[in-house]
Design a protein that fits this description.
seven-stranded antiparallel sheet, 26 helices
């Protein structure tokens, strides 16, 4: 929905920046191309109704700043985020950028000092893609846009592909290209002539709490109320992605407490259980509600566009993507409860698991772990792909050294945080390079169409999270108590994930689900009727396992993987292995959904952008 780019050292920097901007700007946006210094062009695109990211040219000092994203203070989004960054620059306090409240990346050009400064926020929720060679520099907030600069080489990175296929994301500053870097969180990169300096301005640090869980719950309820108030304080048209779960319900309650109206939007294949619960939540909060039918068999039409919006760095987020232009016609901003689950409720922590009704269910209790070393985390993290299936599709060349590259990437990610409790290593990886986190991908792509404001990364909430013991996060007790104090009426409604009253704590819900499963097995309780279509679910998301087997677009793409030149020319994939994995999935013998969607995303990206050679840069 907004974006920035820079070209320096090109023969025609203005034309180069304009070409990059064409890969960012959308119809109706305000676009600008500036020449802040000789041989340098800076370009931006922004939503006309959200002026906070307007580029600033400081007349007195000649400094130009462009921002991708937003910065907030207690009164709401800043009207001029670029001015706030310029003020820190003039005070020689750019390190304080990592203490600002917001989701942003910035480019600053100082012609007097012949200096260009690049910066990212505390979480790396917005990134900048960077190519540099001597005095030549290209920067863009979208990788697709950066590749419009003809100077930028497209050499495929074996390390980058290893990370994509191991973790469904790249790590540190890696991308799928050997010569293109992505700025991690809380970084400042500075170039003066041919001098290049990099520094880290803030690191994730977990600390012992100075409060008990009861006091923490009160602080948390107050913190989320303040965070939502900030993000709804402007005149933008605010929407809320509301599911029948708990996290978005929490945001709804905070908006109601702040007296701010948000339009509640629920997408699903049909008017199912989750839609019904979301509708009841909106009605109880006296907020507008809209159900958007999102039929699975229409989703494949948006796959390639979603892969492009993903920068090719995570699985194409096509489930929501096609509905965004329609939503953007009546909304400027979408709020969500995203991130509250894997921070405050410890969703990715190593917890005990139990098999209920044929599926594994997470229990709100930490399980014993040997340590928090990179290999331990890498081998057990829930976001990875099936190692056996992955090895089957790789060529001998790719398999050689694969494990070392995979574990090395994890070690690099963990080295960017200060970790004492080994359980925190799991969260350290999940939060690392947040903008490329697999659970965050819908919202990264969303920003190409409409602004997303994540509540979970407001400092009032995030700082409390860093002060919670892993066991507190895993149990969810503190978060649950905060939810109940903020919205006891909304918590009386069922949680769509379990069908049980949300007033029940997470441990109690697990016990009740186990009892219900046992009753169903012996015939004392009926199982819910399956959806009318196998690609439907009772929730917001489609049954992607079945969709890949039944949608003609996906079946054709999958059957073509074994002959896909974009993949096979890299020498990293085995055609027989690809064919076997595809047939196993299409026949319904097993589900390779995650791996196949990653392969489809990579092939879609490479079909559009190609590559000149493959570099073994591990």
């Amino acid at each position: 929905m907004s974006g920035i780019c820079l070209a320096a050292g090109a023969a025609e920097p203005g034309a180069t920046a304009a070409a990059m901007l064409a890969g960012i700007a959308r119809h109706g946006q305000v676009t600008e191309v500036l020449a802040p210094a000789p041989g340098v062009a800076l370009a931006s695109a922004r939503h006309a109704r959200l002026p906070g990211d307007k580029p600033l040219k400081d007349g007195a000092e000649g400094v130009t700043v462009a921002v991708d994203g937003e910065i907030f203070d207690d009164g709401g989004p800043l009207e001029d985020a670029a001015a706030a960054i310029a003020e820190l620059y003039h005070a020689d306090r750019m390190d304080r950028l990592a203490w600002l409240n917001g989701s942003f990346a910035a480019i600053l050009v100082d012609p007097a000092m012949k200096r260009i400064v690049l910066a990212t926020d505390r979480m790396g929720s917005r990134t900048l893609f960077v190519w540099r060679h001597g005095r030549h520099l290209a920067v863009a907030s979208r990788l697709d846009a950066l590749l419009a600069d003809e100077r930028v080489p497209k050499r495929l990175s074996v390390q980058g592909l290893t990370e994509l296929l191991s973790y469904q994301r790249t790590v540190s500053d890696h991308t799928q290209y050997a010569d293109i870097r992505a700025m991690p969180a809380a970084r400042i990169w500075c170039v003066e002539g041919e001098s290049w300096k990099e520094r880290e301005t803030r690191r994730p640090v977990w600390r012992a709490p100075e409060f008990d869980q009861a006091e923490g719950a009160l602080r948390l309820a107050e913190g989320i109320s303040r965070a939502v108030r900030r993000r709804t304080a402007d005149s933008a048209r605010h929407g809320l992605l509301l599911s029948g779960g708990l996290d978005a319900r929490w945001v709804l309650a905070a908006a109601r407490a702040a007296g701010h109206e948000v339009s509640c939007l629920t997408l699903a294949s049909h008017d199912n259980l989750e839609v019904g619960i979301a509708r009841r939540c909106a009605q109880m909060a006296n907020m507008p509600f809209r159900y958007i039918e999102n039929r699975p068999h229409g989703l494949s039409a948006h796959f390639d566009a979603a892969a492009r919006a993903s920068d090719g760095l995570f699985t194409a987020p096509f489930n929501l993507f096609g509905a965004l232009p329609d939503i953007a016609r009546s909304h400027d901003v979408l709020l969500s409860g995203h991130g509250l689950d894997y921070t405050l409720r410890g969703y990715y922590l190593p917890c005990a698991m139990v098999r209920l009704a044929g599926s594994l269910t997470r229990l709100p209790k930490l399980r014993a772990i040997p340590d928090g070393k990179p290999k331990t985390v890498s081998d057990s993290l829930r976001v990875g792909l099936n190692a056996h299936a992955l090895q089957a599709v790789l060529s001998p060349r790719a398999r050689a050294g694969w494990d070392e590259r995979r574990v090395g990437a994890m070690a690099l990610a963990l080295s960017s945080a200060d970790i004492e409790d080994p359980y925190n290593a799991w969260d350290a990886f999940v939060l690392h390079c947040l903008g490329r986190h697999t659970a965050y991908n819908d919202f990264v792509a969303m920003n190409t169409v409409i602004a997303h404001r994540a509540i979970a990364f407001d400092p009032d909430i995030l700082d409390l999270y860093y002060a919670m013991k892993p066991a507190w996060r895993a149990s969810g007790r503190m978060a649950h108590a905060a939810m109940k104090s903020l919205a006891p009426d909304l918590m009386a409604l069922p949680d769509a994930n379990s069908g049980l009253s949300a007033n029940n704590g997470f441990a109690k819900q697990a016990v009740l689900m186990f009892m219900r499963g046992a009753a169903r097995r012996v015939g004392l309780s009926a199982r819910p009727a399956p959806p009318a279509d196998a690609t439907w679910t009772h929730g917001s998301w489609s049954n992607l396992h079945e969709l890949l087997r039944r949608d003609a677009f996906f079946v054709e793409r999958l059957r073509g993987l074994a002959e896909n030149t974009a993949l096979l020319d890299s020498g990293l994939f085995d055609p027989q292995g690809l064919a076997r994995i595809v047939e196993e999935h299409l026949a319904g013998h097993t589900s390779h959904r995650k791996l196949l969607l990653e392969l489809l995303t990579i092939s879609s990206w490479l079909a559009r952008h190609s590559y000149s050679e493959v570099v073994d840069d591990g």
